[in-house]
Amino acid sequence: MSQPNEWRLLHRAPSPTVSRRAARPVGGRDATQVASIVTDGATAVISARAQDTKDGNQPARLVGDPRMTAPPPSPVCPEHDGPAASLLHGAPVRPSLREDEPRDQRVLNATPSAGQFDCTNKTGEFSVGSEDLFHSGSIPGHRKGSKPAAVRTLHRCGRTMPQEASSATGILRQAAEQPPSSHALLIVAAAVVLWLCWSHSRGSHEPKASQLMPAYVPLEIGLSTILLQCKGLVSYLPFALRRRTGSLFGITRRHQILYNLPGVDKLFATGHRTLDTNPLGLSMVLRVFGGLVPPELRPNFPAMCKKLSTPVEKGFVNDEAATAALARADVPGKVGDLLSFSEEPASQRHWERAAKITVMAQPGTGRSAAVELDLENLLRDLGACISIPQLYGQDFLDRNPTLLDDFWKFDNHAFPLLVAGAPKWIPIKSFKEGVAARDRLHLALGGFFRRLDQLMNNESVDFDADMSDVSVVAKERNAAFKEFGVPIENRGKLETGTFWGQNANTQPLVFWFILYIYATPGLLEALRSEVEPCMAVTRDGAITQITRVDISALGRECPLLKSAMFETFRMVNEPTSIRYVARALLVPDGEHQHHLEAGTWISVPHAGIQHEPSIFPEPDQFIPDRFLEVDERSGKTVARYGRLRPWGAGVGICKGRTFAEKEILLIASCFITLWDMEPPGGGPWQVPGSVPGTGVARPNGAVRAVLKRRSHASWRPDVE
């Protein structure tokens, strides 16, 4: 591979602002769709499967890869969204497009011919965010699950942060990219959903006694977002039910979507008395996580949530606490012992058991020991095995050998339908298995709180379990449950949301981040050089161990590493914030003002800008140094989020983002320092397509990788 191609982006001079490159259109992809519509009363759950297939003339491409082939020219610059732009920004449809106008003023011809309009082709569907079940705010998310979800969710580390999303409406996007003959399916599906949402919301513009989120809200968000970014006649569908001008629109009266609203950060700085997160939290507890909140407890639900979230914030959210927690986790040791080089489950580490390992060469055979495995399963479970003991202790993980398997079954197969209001009796095998897995999670967490209660009451602990490393956070949460009269058997159910929030998205992000590092030409070598000063290593024969790592320095002194992590967020997370309007308010929107009545739900799809070429040029390409800037005061190169909002906005911004960032950076840094990785059979990496999930994208097929200990023939380790 030629040097210029490898270093075209990695070694360009950083500028004070995020670099801009000329946007180029990306060709569409073929897809197969399978859709099913299940109705329960006025609730529709649409599930769809979109399986990307590779175009022989357009292989998977990465920045700097000389194998890149230019896609066929698009009839319309992907910077524009067609007539949807006029809907989003309240402007009348005009027959001309002025390139000198601001992005939010641009519109396209009102009478398109077939195939005239185009939309940016992204790596998957749109996700919708929400708030921490226990008092936090919006967060990023994307897709996950072996089958696309009707609704996506998202978390942020150390806290329960669900993010609702309608990934099921992926069928709408995929059909919109097909020839006109495929639009019939799209229009029929959209019409059914629109009618159900409309009929369910008739007369519902007044505040209701129940503040539970309507089950159609996540579906409406996903549907509207997709329709507004599609091409052709499909993009006109939202016009029929638009109720606002400017940046606000919605299908139903009780829900308004704020798209590209100026000053959205200021709006979301409004306090919880006006824009409330607790109704969403209660909805998720009851509908998805299976918690019991009896009527007598509901008036105290906000107070209980605050009491439960306070210890999480103290224990994990500030820089010092997050660093200390990760230091206790011994991440370098776990990554150093990543592989047992055994195919026997009894001899494998906990995180190896789902990785479908094939040993290619044993240690001591004269060849470099190597294994082939499922990379996603290995890295997501490694991350979980690092995080879980920091809150619940090692005994909890060891005592429940099926814990991780049950968690991913629930997350992949049950969560999406539950969040859309599906009843538990739906005769879908995978769904019923997911619900059963959730029940086992309840039992495991309930047993943990029973033993913890015994410990805190100075009683004999069941099974003589070692509870010495249970966190202060868990103990304070148990005390809060007890204060509000929550019985032990219900504590495990209410805790399921926090357990889900701790693991559902950070761990898959570790997988994507490491995959992009190894798949992007030149990036692995650059990052190894960048993180090397932050570590000290020793060698004992063929075994290299990290003896010291400066966790804080990874985020402070490694800007390219951090920028590449931000780019991973942009590629696989699509956040949307959701709030409940508890008190009426006016929302300024340029020339418009919108009056939102109490009882309205609002959502802000931050993900709308993540693939916007005018903001992020070449949005479908992974560009690791995209977020590098030069600090005006110090003159140092730093990584900054810029317009990216992976953690939400306003007072509800994710409080666990510090821990999440540090965990991802630390695991990735240790991994690239200690391990070499290549695709089975060698050759360049092909980053797979993705399918929607409950928070972060999942690859559309198993990603097999060959791992072996890093060769240090040309590398001199630092020694303490």
TrEMBL record:
CDD domains noted in UniProt: CYP7_CYP8-like
Protein name according to UniProt: Cytochrome P450
Cofactor(s) named in the record: heme
Family: Belongs to the cytochrome P450 family.
Gene Ontology CC: endoplasmic reticulum membrane
A GO term, aspect molecular function: oxidoreductase activity, acting on paired donors, with incorporation or reduction of molecular oxygen
Subcellular location: Endoplasmic reticulum membrane
Residues that bind heme: 654
Chief place of localization: endoplasmic reticulum
Species whose genome carries this gene: Purpureocillium lilacinum (Paecilomyces lilacinus)
Keywords linked to the UniProt accession: Heme, Iron, Lipid biosynthesis, Lipid metabolism, Metal-binding, Monooxygenase, Oxidoreductase
Region (Disordered): 1-34, 48-90
Membrane topology annotation: Single-pass membrane protein
Stored Pfam families: p450 (PF00067)
